[in-house]
Hints:
With 370 residues, this protein is mostly helical. The protein has 3 domains: 1-69, no CATH class; 76-190; 200-364, hpI Integrase, Chain A (Orthogonal Bundle), CATH 1.10.443. 55% of the residues lie in helices and 6% in strands. The strands form 2 sheets. A 4-stranded mixed sheet has the order 3-4-5-6, with no helix packed on it. It has a two-stranded antiparallel sheet with strand order 1-2. It is elongated. The model is unreliable at 37-72 (pLDDT under 50).
Amino acid sequence: MVFTNAEKTKRNYEKDKSNILARKRAAYAKKKLEKNLPIVEEPPLESTSHLIEIQPETELKFESVFIPIEPITIDTFTQVSQMINALDISDGLKKFRINNFKTIINILKPVDYTDLIFKLTKQPKKVIHKFKDFEYQPWKKYSINSLITFYKSILFFVDKFDIQIKPDKKIKYEDQIQIGDVVSSEELEVKNNNISIPTFSEYLNNVIEHFGLNSREYLISKMYEELKCRDDLQLILVRDYIKANPDKNYIIVNEFDQANVIINNYKTADRYGPINCQISSELTTLIKSFILTHKIDNDDLFFNAKNMSTIVSRMNKKLGYNKFGAINLFRKMIASDSKDLPLKEQLKVAKQMTHSLKVHNSNYIIKESI
């Protein structure tokens, strides 16, 4: 029997099909190994029994195999931090919320962001129990005020990012906040009725006695007395505020005017706005002397300290005030000194301290002072 060229080509191809496939697979595997990529099985060659004629010059073309690349993933805390940082709120409030979520994530240990949202929105009862039972140190659990902060941070997050949560789930957090507020107020009232603190004037006299009138400790104390702020004295020295960054805190000192302090970045800045406080003549004199003595230049950090609370805490311990932390003692003294003022004047002091009159009276005023 005589075969045509096309028939011969077809018969030879059918005969060597398995050999061709083996060579193709070997070449493919070698290529992937060189590129350190996973080997994907090549599909078998289709049967050519249906072909009538194959032209010898026709090339066999094999389509390339697509190797999917895993997307770059970020951890849950990073994702939450990026979301909060993108919000149009003060830097101080961003930092506050991010720190809260760092603790929340540490307690709940979600496998990813989706799991975190599932826990927060679908399992609030379990979340609340975990918060209450969690020990950040052996035998030490978070205070009721800390728990309230966690619940408020969760509600803040779901509201800001329109995260779906059923009303009956959301109300579990809201109920815990209300219950916690009552318990916290009762605990604080008992505590405040059984302790005493000095007046601010008595405290300053003690500072002068231990550290001196021209000391950094006295200057810090006087500034907190006048400014009535929180831990916000991360002040940058400038001669003129025109070129200042609206997200930073500044102390403006020149040779002609009284010093000014402008605090843009603090915990409740969204509610109370920037603080602009003119410093008294007496304190301005101390500030100018401090600048000369310590050779502080324009754009320098005034106190050269990233955490004022650490300085004040060390100072309080040396003075024998160990029960109230650091700057919290300043705030309690300021509030307690105002307790006998008319309510209108107490409200004025509360606003200067950037909190409500209710918080002023329930959280800061000590009923008896020495």
